[in-house]
Amino acid sequence: MSGSASGHYPAGDLRDQLAHAGRAVVQAGLVMGSGGNLSARVPGADECWVTAAGTWLDRLDRGSFVRIRIRDGAALDNSVGVAPSSELGLHLALYRARPDAGAVIHLHPQAVLLLDALAEPIRLATTDHAFYVRQVATTPFVPPGRPEVGQLAAAACADGVNCVVLSRHGCSVIADSVELAHKRAVNLEEAARLTYSALALGRPLPVLPTDWLQGPGATA
Description:
With 220 residues, this protein is of the alpha+beta class.
């Protein structure tokens, strides 16, 4: 997969980009092995590639993905007969709610989930956090795999929120590209880690002013 050695995202096939992201999030400790799933929308088509059920995110290749029609969830050209992730409904609900979404990264990051369990909001501590994350929504707990997981996440993101915490489950991050979704996921977990560190020191982080994000050129 060209480009991965230099740190740049691979050009071309979306599955190569998703595999690159999968290795990176595992190496960064954002997820343990198979604790998450990834997808990317095929540009100009009612289709997306989504990780197959049970895949390890740091061991993905082009055969680790299933091509799915977004409008009805039908598998397309699945000659190898692999099943899509059990969280397929989550990905499809987000794509249907957000036509601008080109990628969905769903992970189970420890700091994000620890703060959720403690009922503590994630504070955006740096300008990078504010630029990439901007706002974090939280949905009530629903057992993984149920249709309500996707329905609640889609409702939370419908007005432009790109990062949603699924209570006691994980987070879902959306963007117009795999690379941007990856950056948002990294910054969300870093913000959660810094929030927890501040709480452990007895010094809750103050709210970061974000008015500057509304200025010219402030898009992520």
